[in-house]
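Need tokens for this chain, all 149 residues.
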Amino acid sequence: MSKRGAFRASDSDREQVIERLHQAATEGRIVSDELEHRVSAALKARTYDELDETVADLPGPRGRAPARRTVPQFALSAVRANPWLIVFAIPALAVTAAMLVAAAVLWMVLAVVVMIVGGHPGGRGLGPGSRSRRPGLRSPRRGPGSYWA
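Here are the structure tokens for all 149 residues:
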């Protein structure tokens, strides 16, 4: 007896087991009298172990809660309905996403380089020894006889 088997089953778990029992009857694995008996037992089952007993001798998925799927169900149904998605749309989305990531990384690297080296031609940036100008102030005149020459 597993730890999970002692947990209480939900109505959706019971419905899954009943669906599996109907599928087994359709496949010819159980007869109608046995189907009625097993459906009744599944409806009365309280735990996963009791549910598993109703489908234990049948092949295929058991009555336990379904395992988590890695792909959402709507995605699988969309691909089944439109197989061209596999060939065109999905690779196009993947390439687009990769290009967006590459562009973002390139802009971040460029921004870091500009901040380190400086944004002005000639290397005058925000590095040490650079003079920053406040907006609105005119730069002093430079020329012969000037204090700033």
